Amino acid sequence: MAIGFDFNPQNCTECQRCMLACSEVKLGHIQLRQSRIEIIRNWPELPVLDVCRFDDCEEKPCIVSCPVDAISNERGIVLIDGQECNGCGECVAACPFGAIKQDVEDIAYKCDFCGGDPACVKECLTLALVKKE
Amino acid sequence: MAGSMHDRMIRIDCTASKVTLWGVPEALKEYVGGMGYGTKMLVDEVNPGIDPLSPENKIVLTIGPLTGTSAPMFPQSCIVTKSPLSGTILNSYAGGFLGAEIKFCGIDGIIFEGAFPEWTIVLIEDNNVRFYPADPVMGKSTRETEMYMKDTFGEDVRTVSIGKAGEKKVAMASTFSETRTFGRGGTGAVFGSKKIKGIAVRGTHPVNVADPGTFKELVAGNMGILKNACSEEYNLVGLFSRVGTGAGMGLVNSRGTLPTKNHKYGSFDGYPEIDGYAYANKFYTRAVSCYGCPVHCGMLHKFVRHDNSHSWLRGPEYETMYALGSDLLNRDPVTLAEANELCEEYGMDTLTTGVVLAWSLEMAERGILNEPGLSLKFGDSRSILELLRKIGEREGIGDLLAEGPKRAAERISTDNIGIAMQVKNSGFAAWMPRRMKGVALAFATSNRGACHKRAPIGAEVTGQIDMDTIEGKASLVKEIQDKVNACFTMIACRFHEFVTDEEYYPRYIEAATGMKISYRDFVRLGERIWNLERLFNIGAGFSRKDDSLPERCFEPVLGENSENAVIRRDQFEEMLDQYYRVRGWNDEGIPGKKKLKELGILEYL
To answer: Is residue A54 assigned to a domain?
Structure first.
């Protein structure tokens, strides 16, 4: 199975429903600043997508950057172990896609592809965001 | 579980730069939120007789129970204040992302009282409020002010700002939030009177709902309805989603109800050059949404100005295609886009500004008005753009026009008020009262003046009901006014109700907040608010004489063959009598004791 997203910014209307869905699934409520996927407005130009690219990120610099080996590649899905994370923020700086955030205690978190069936993709009616073929 | 309202608001005493976190009293919670909160608070706290531009006026900026949730088509926020344009109580709405951000602050709204001694930018982060001098952006456009706030406070703040028109208290100045606008009624001038140049908001609070399971089902059902609507060829919401609100201009034109040349004519042969399809073919780049909305009716256009510089615009919207297009005999889409852009830059309502422009061009045609260096001819690009700039600057003739169509006409001579297409100094929206009798009554009786949001537009223009008859229009208009007021307590986008079953509203409220309300009581709440507004307006000096239409409405529409292309004065008065009766008001339009008792607001008499 391919892991990752195809993003067609021309189709993205910046409605943020992908972010809403992510927030509801991961947090149980709406808190968009903690959503694992983010659409960044760039008017009048096309929006930018901030989320882990999985298969499309060959180097996976976050894994290399982590001093405590808290980030692993589980069959293509890159995961952060919050228990192991020491909050140094190296992975945030290393990620070329702005896909990793830190919580109030500096613990890093990111998209886990919902285990293979991402909620954000299902929410996108314009098909700007689809699962990688 | 905690509901979706936070039950507290931020109160800012601008005069003293003092901030209070204010608990929402139980009596206010019955009003659900949005327009309900704003109206009740303004009526309770502001003397209707005050000067709207004095420190005694207040700005109540509110959101509703579904704002910031995953429910689709609830992105808007609402400003209630006393209007400097109409002198009535005003509710004005803007979409975009501001509403959700206010919710993320953990509050249900912000109240501005008094006036700052110096021009100020207000930063609200959760419930922390800070004030900054606005000097670097004084005289700057709404877009520049927004960019300054984002540069200063961070890209992720949501903003609202005024342009030069608001600074100079132009009566129809509006406030802008990332191209979405609190357009009607002069909110920008009230901001200006309080020396508020801009507000930036950033929130980190979670948004919860009382019953997440039921809420999720409702959202899924509602999303299904909207998805279907968007894929249907002849669904209005579907058309908006593909082409934007300008999609229907051809239909309006074919019905002889497209106001043209200051409402003299009912159709415009130039419409195919400026309607939604024309912009889609020539300037389209992509569609953009408000928060959480699958309809994406916003259309981003790129165009080249007359001076060959490049620009972009979200819009124009249908109403603007009329006000700065057909009503001015302007068939040039670039002039229309530039005019729209100027209104955005200066921060002005395209509707009332367009109406006052149309009036001034007709006055020039009659040889009564002139302005050095301008031809003031209908359709003349330079006159249109230059007049807009002059209004924004209050320069030359612009200073007169900045007062709004009725006040401008009064200053010249009372003979000309009949061709100022306004009610209570608020410019007509893009519909012809003479052709659409329900719209005539809705314009005349609106609590904020010439308002299209509570008019039977869709039903009349599509022919679902006969637009020529006055039969049944009184109760129809009352029904719509009450229903839309109710929907505005939740601040549903006006298009939401076009396709969503009415039963959704009470179910949404209960799932989000835990508050039980029947649909009947929900509409009754809308009626209660309508009556509170009416009482405020009566206190401000309004009466039956103000529920009227300009003289031109009682003359035939030129170029239309139908003998019904006119509304007779006796027909209009009959409709008004019927309307007062169905409202439970007396012949002068004053709510009776019985009605107020029935609505539970007798103490306001």
So the answer is: yes
Q: By the CB < 8 Å criterion, does A24 face chain B? A: yes
Q: Is residue B565 very low, low, confident or very high in pLDDT (cuts 50, 70, 90)?
A: confident
The Cα A48–Cα A33 span in angstroms is: 16
Q: How many domains does one find in chain A? A: 1
Written as six digits, the tokens of B567 are: 């509304």
Average pLDDT over all residues of chain A: 97
Facing residue for A30 by CB, picked from B207, B230, B300: B207
Nearest chain A Cα distance for residue B591, angstroms:
43
- Using CA atoms in the order B68, B74, B75, B79, what is the torsion angle rounded to 10 degrees? -100
What letter represents residue B453's amino acid? K
- Tally of domains within chain B: 3
| Domain span holding position B479 | 437-604
Question: Which range is least confidently modeled, B403-407, B410-414, B430-434, B478-482?
Answer: B410-414
pLDDT in tens, B201-246: 999 999 999 999 999 999 999 999 999 999 998 899 999 999 999 9
Test the A interface: residue of B125, B288, B341 with most A CBs within 10 Å: B288
Can you give the CATH number for the domain in which A18 is found?
3.30.70.20
The answer, yes or no, to whether the previous bond of A44 is cis (omega within 30 of 0) is yes
Contacts of B212 in chain A (CB under 8 A): 28
Buried b (16+ CB within 10 A) or exposed e, A15-48: bbbbbbbbbbebeebbbbebbbbbbeeeeeebbe
The last residue of a domain, from among B427, B447, B464: B427
In a domain, A52, yes or no: yes
Domain span holding position A77: 5-127
Q: Do A15 and B291 touch (CB under 8 A)?
A: yes
- Chain B residues in contact with A20 (beta carbon < 8 A): 70, 292
In tens, the pLDDT along B466-481 reads: 999 999 999 999 999 9
At residue B1, the pLDDT reads 59
For B296-325, the pLDDT digits (tens) are 999 999 999 999 999 999 999 999 999 999
B234-262 average pLDDT score: 95
Q: B141: which 2 tokens?
A: 């456009």
Cα dihedral B521→B527→B531→B536 (10° resolution): 100
Task: Find all residues with CB under 8 Å of B416, minimum gap 6, and list them.
Answer: B359, B363, B368, B409
User: What rounded mean pLDDT belongs to chain B?
Assistant: 97
Interface pTM, i.e. ipTM: 0.96
Amino acid at B437: K
Per-residue 3-state assignment (H helix, E strand, C coil) for B342-396:
HHHHHCECHHHHHHHHHHHHHHHHCCCCCECCECCCCCCHHHHHHHHHHHHHCCC
Q: What is the pLDDT of residue B57?
A: 98
Q: Give the pLDDT score at B560.
A: 74
For residue B287, CA distances in Å to A47, A128, B11, B273 come to 12, 12, 36, 20
**Residue A133 in domain:** no
Pairing type for strands A77-80 and A101-102 reads unpaired
Mark out the alpha helices in B423-518 (DSSP H runs). Answer: 437-445, 457-461, 473-489, 496-499, 504-513
My answer on whether B441 and B368 are in the same domain is no
B16 and B61 part of one domain: yes
pLDDT in tens, A59-106: 999 999 999 999 999 999 999 999 999 999 999 999 999 999 999 999
Q: Which of A131, A130, A54, A65 is nearest to A99 (CA)?
A: A54
Residues B441 and B354 in one domain: no
DSSP conformation class of B583: H
Residue type for position B352 = T
Q: Are B419 and B495 contained in the same domain?
A: no
Task: Label the pairing between strands A77-80 and B89-94.
Answer: unpaired
Domain identity same for B159 and B249:
no
A132 in reach of chain B (CB within 8 A): no
pLDDT score at B559: 82
